Input
Amino acid sequence: MSSLIFEKSREGRRCAVIPKCELKAEIPAQLIRQTPPKLPEIAEVDLVRHYTNLSRRAYGVDNGFYPLGSCTMKYNPKIDEDAASLKGFTDIHPLQSIQSVQGCLEAMYMLKTYLCEITGMDDMTLQPAAGAHGEFTGLSMIRTYLSSIGQGYRTKLIVPDSAHGTNPASAAMNGFDVVNIPSTQQGFVDLEALRAAVGEDTAALMLTNPNTVGRFDENILEITDIVHSAGGLVYYDGANMNAVMGLARPGDMGFDVVHLNLHKTFATPHGGGGPGSGPVGCKARLSAFLPSPVVTCNEGKYELITPESTIGSVGSFYGNFLVCIKALAYIMTLGAQGIREVSENAVLNANYLMEMLKDTYDIPFEGPCMHEFVMSLERLKKETGVNASDIAKGLIDLGIHPPTMYFPLIVHEALMLEPTETESRETLDNAIQAFKKLKQTALENPQALHDSPVTTPIGRPDETAAVRYPILKYSFTE
Ligand SMILES: *Cc1c(COP(=O)(O)O)cnc(C)c1O
Output
């Protein structure tokens, strides 16, 4: 274990030595602190080594395989970062005049147009900063739309149990009553349960598709139809768009609103809480409710307008602009054909991995998957005592980031794998070998897996305590 920066501090040590400042600032006495801040005092070389060594402990897509299901941890081409670092994009101010940022507005307009094309929607906002934020925005638009047509009595929001966890949360935060409906054996929406659930009070159905078990609901047209017939709207959680881009469009399936995760599908790295973007697309009847401002084009001039019945703003200014630039660069470099191939390869890679592992681990849902799949370690746990967490920890020692664990909740001892399209055959084969090796270890020496990981600075922290009682600052002894 290396020491903390505060422990490395030695009185009087400094980084670069610069001449004493001769300017005297007039700071009001009450604003001057009484005791100096306890900043670490350290030489430049030790400072650089400290952070460089810490950074080498972080594991990201640039280090190795990262099959974290539901998260689309794919490699993001560096050229998209280059595009987003161009001075014309970075050296602007949100309060600049519209005339002086026409190029940037054009970029936003182009992105919006491409994303509408990919999703089959008529209009779009780029303002929400994340997927869940997009959900909240889209549902607010639905709520405001319903009251505008005198149907504020529609208060129920139907969410299948195979939805992403953020869906019921976004619905509840919008004041809707969440109605949960079960999935069938194949992991699809139970149509009978849906028919029984819809009615006069149905505001909308929120569908994660492909769902959290990696299935494209084969009754999708019937689902949107059932909800529309009851007068409700349908919301498509498009965070999993990586599986269907260029192949199928939510708009064509009857959906009214969709959100995307640019930080999953469209070239912005994520994890660690960096900037994201969750654009929300809608059909024409909802565009008057989009958050303000919306970028439009009028006779070759780009403008920012406030939609007539806007729900208001959901963030400051125009969203995470540079994330949008990365998405635009990504789409333009790939082109229509490339975008489609991304999804085809994402699905191919997931199916390859699933096929190669299905004799080693139980796959609870039969048939081909989309971009991800779920395995259940329930039987392995019964037979050997090794659970999903143990296998995940064992993978760390083999240099692979663990898959998503214990999610979705409808599968016991779940591990959810999403290899993404950017992984090579060799990387996938290596992962297959790792998973097989861990199964062997589980049968022969389960204790070894209970003890893993052994190659990391910390083995098994108390995860509950780490969440409930996080120690986020250094306690000085004196
Ligand atoms: C990731 C994800 C979300 C939430 O996105 P955030 O940007 O983390 O808020 C919502 N739905 C699905 C299906 C997801 O995979």
About this structure: The CA atoms of residues 208 and 237 lie 5 Å apart. The chain has a mean pLDDT of 95. Residues 78-334 form a domain with the Aspartate Aminotransferase; domain 2 fold (CATH 3.40.640.10).
